[in-house]
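Review box. Two proteins, two foldings.
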Amino acid sequence: MLDLFRKKQKSVFIKAAFAVIILSFVIGYAMMTSPGDRGGQSGTYAVRVNDTEISYDEYQTVYGNIYSLYQNVYRDQFTPAMEKQLGLRSQAINSLVDQALLVQEADRMKIRVSQQELVDSIAAIPSFQENGVFNKARYLQVLAYQRLTPEDFEASQKNQLLAAQVRDTLQKNISVAEAEVAEEFRNQNEKVNLSFVRLAPGLFESQVKVNEEDLKAYFDQNKENFRIPESVALRYLLFEPSRYENEVTHTDEDLDKYYRRHLDNFEIEEKAKAAHILIKVGQDADQATRNLKRQLAEKVLELAKTGKDFGELVHQYSDDQGTIAQDGDLGFFTRGTMVPEFERAAFALKPGELSELVESPFGYHIIKSEQYIEAGIQPKAEVLDQVKAGVTAEKSRQLALEKAMDAYNINRKNGDIDAAAKANDLGIKETNFFERSAPIDSLGDVPQISGAAFSLEPGKIARPVTLEKNVILYAVKERRESRLPELAEVRSEVEQAYRSKYTLELAQRTADEMLTALKGGKTLSSLAKTQNLTVEETGLFTRSYGNFIPRLGDIGELAQAAFTLTTDSPASDKVHEIDGKFVIAELKEHQTPDPASIDAAQQETLRATVLSRKQDQMIDDKLKELREKAKIVIAPNILASIEKG
């Protein structure tokens, strides 16, 4: 049944509902507060847009949800490096700033949202509906689950409507000329194929000879590049929460509070359990074949309705090889797991019921419902052990912090970490030397320590730092100042840098010589042969690829130049560099589309594409204009986190 599965995602109706509204809410909510209305905030802000302040908590909420969105899409492939590349913190700030600017522009344009428009927009959100009709109880339940009040959500929704009306007003008079449609057709259908060779500096490494005199001269000229940075080593105490679990006590009120704060841990997902018979129909099947398959499916459905054993029918007729051995059983599945047609039918059935014929991209299904679990929250009594464990973990973590703070306060003046260790019956651990903001052996990447340790005075103890699992109390054991090294200390790094410099120069010089020869009439294949290079091809690509060229990557200059090359002048006029390699390219093939081949449907599709792009550009231009006029102040700590990535 693997063909029927989409990418599985965690889903219960409350979470599914909130997923629809969360990003719009957290952005819209940020617009609700102002210097005079902080909604209980501390007065600090992440970003100020003119007179609108957006709190740090609101920024964190937006960032957290954008992070979760990408994490759900990329799963195990979502790494810190990818997060940095995507610039999620910048995305969060930019979305909040853009929303604030649009809401402010709505006020300037005297755009208003009536109470009825607000009510209608909320009632139209499917997440708040049952059987297609707005359900107040569902609405309140979804909001309460996320600890939102109706007033907060409705204010955020109003801001969303204001921003949408600004967009609509700006976009409504945009039109598309016939020439723009023709240009879009050309951009989508004009194709080129390039031949190219790549010269990697590593190919020339054998030609670089390193002698002592040249290496020393290179080192003397570039000694600052090999400076040994400042480093420190630490002594530290590890306050582990598990040491203090026996000291934890809790009341019924503690359990209640924990349960309410962690309702998402006790969700019951909406699930259905069903079996099915699949009469498979190929995507390219003709109508006659489809009719025959439907007739067979109707026959099997009739047999099932008359009491024929469903498992026997599965073995006799089903084309789903993955479930035949289980009598068609699919097990439990949540919403968002199956294709829409199948899912709608399966969740509409009561246990024991048979569906009518269900048509999906895979063919005809006969579904038998076996079990249904309604979405909800597990009662506290059923998860009491889990709640107690959670309270114990939280309180023991707090105790660990309190013990560390006590040790800090008692010993911070004399800086005696040995006394702190003895009083708490802890052994002192030590790190090796590490550089500023670098990972620390045995502790890992802990920027709140690896940065602060370098400003800690000798003989002082730093404030405790709470890590994911433990609390750290530390002092500097030894500091090594930054200094210029002797050649012997960094010889391998110097040799590598020396080789890299000259192999790069050799590769660049050889590429320039090859391009000159290519323009002089030599063939790319003959030139490649002299350097033992392989001639590759990009394959046909269009202008719509933008700066991207298949098999090469982002080379904007070459991507643009490719469509100006001709058979009389096929060589690109310069050597292009990408990923540290030098590329020489020439035209292999050029396909020019015939505008007369466009039919009416294609023309409308092209027109819609151009219109959408122009509308998006209009909003981008407007936001750019508003940003240039606006006073936007980003909090220093937020700005630092964005720059760091």
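Next protein.
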Amino acid sequence: MISATETALDLHEYLRMHETKDLLRFITCGSVDDGKSTLIGRLLHDSKLLFDDQLAALETDSQKHGTQNGQIDFALLVDGLAAEREQGITIDVAYRFFSTEKRKFIVADCPGHEQYTRNMATGASTADLAVVLVDARKGLLTQTRRHSYIVSLLGIRKVLLAVNKMDLMDYRREVFAAIKHDYRELAQQLGIAEVQCIPLSALNGDNVMTRSSAMDWYDGPSLLEHLENVDIDRAAQDVGFRLPVQWVNRPHQNFRGFAGPIVSGAVAVGDEVVALPSGRRSQVTAIVTADGELARAGEGQAVTLTLADEIDISRGDVICAGKQPAEVADQFAAHVLWMNDAPLLPGRPYWLKIGARMVSATVTEIKHKVDVNTQDHLAAKRLELNEVGYCNLNLDQPIPFEPYANNKALGAFILIDRQTNATVAAGTIDFALRRAANIHWHSLEIDRHARAATKGQAPLCLWFTGLSGSGKSTIANLVDRRLHALGYHSYILDGDNVRHGLNKDLGFTDEDRVENIRRVAEVAKLMTDAGLIVLVSFISPFRAERRMARELFAEGEFAEVFVDTPLEVCEQRDAKGLYAKARAGKIHNFTGIDSPYELPEHADFHLHNVDIAADALAQQLVDQVVARIGQHKR
């Protein structure tokens, strides 16, 4: 009879053994219906890691939702969403844990459908190895190439090519050899260093757990044997100690610590460190963990550091080794995977989140996009859903970073839409644009307020927006005349006039509209710096660009004026005949017809230009503007 003490010792030994096992994170990816979920289900089932109730539920679900004619459908173990079972595809990333005597595993089953490529990138971001499945009947498909490119982009250098459904090709050696040859060529183009190719049948279990007699011509390892024995070198380049601050821990006035994970290097009590981007230096006085204080801590540990000096460090800052600090920059070259239905447009502002830091960012230029089939570089002015581009990024403030190849934690970022807060892109930093370091802001002795004071006014930008024919330019001109008569110094930037000069190289695509507004907003900003009241009359159809313009100005120095005129009224007033030409298809990308106008949500001034004369609307606006910027001239 086994005593309670012996049972406790056995349990302790079992837990110790599992605690010290190596952990391998891997993904399964590839095209739709290549058998990714079936393969993982087979691994879980044959590893004897399913409870009796899970087996019973699997048998029941296989009868109801299965695709194997009443036999066990292993894919149902990971396809948990109702929509996945109804459609027979994977939609979201499904994470599963399993363990063998040699190793622990966390596998991410990634969707194969092109629409869900963004989800695949999420799963690949933390993986050490990728299992790329290929249907033996179909060979390499576009999605196989796309997923392999993303695997390479995210720094995964070891791939297991699983040529699945060999049973449907009579286990023929030449079928496997041809696919193996094609994929190795692709891997070489992508810079994937190591590829292990295995022929298998996930449904029947051939070469999954053990080698199959059905393919006696294959002399390599089974899939599980390779996963158990593959050497995963996680050592990053020696960039020194790095701790991105996630939390400033201040439980009482006698303690102030900076908490976060160590993403590279090691730190010891007494070490000199530098906080970035501020550049302030100090020494480590304590390394605090949940289990007590340590003399030294290394990569992978979550710690709280206390410092000798009261220096300003906030969430999103990075604490680095004093002699090996990270780089700091505000302009980068980066790879961007676009993950939104609406396209990426250069010049449009987004939020960029890197670690715990959030900053405003714009893509200033798309250098090229990548053809996933050939890896050719193609010219592009926008990125559509699932496209990858090599871009230049500009941030509104400098951030500490590492190139992604050196450190994933400090080189990976996401872009967030500023209106919806949806994640629209994932990216990897390649390097800082050095030219940014050669440009410095030159301080001027006479500022905007001094220039405005000599004119007896306050600087202001009135941004008129509305459809073509809404009356923007007419009202702006009347306001300008009245302000001039009152002795104010003002100037009009009109959309048509500016397109004859500064913006004569721009058309009317969405990309050119964004750049059109960016340039005009910068000019308007310079005019307010000169102390002027500037009236900007542009359709400016997109909210994102109007918000970008507003953010260039100081608080209270920008006012959006929405000239609200219904489309049918604008068409009736159309002296230039532009709407008629747009309706006839002679003009493309015309706002209100085949290009959208996004109504302002919080305009500072809302002018309903239908039943009220333009003179009256202009006078109303002048009265409010004068009250805002100062008294009438004497």
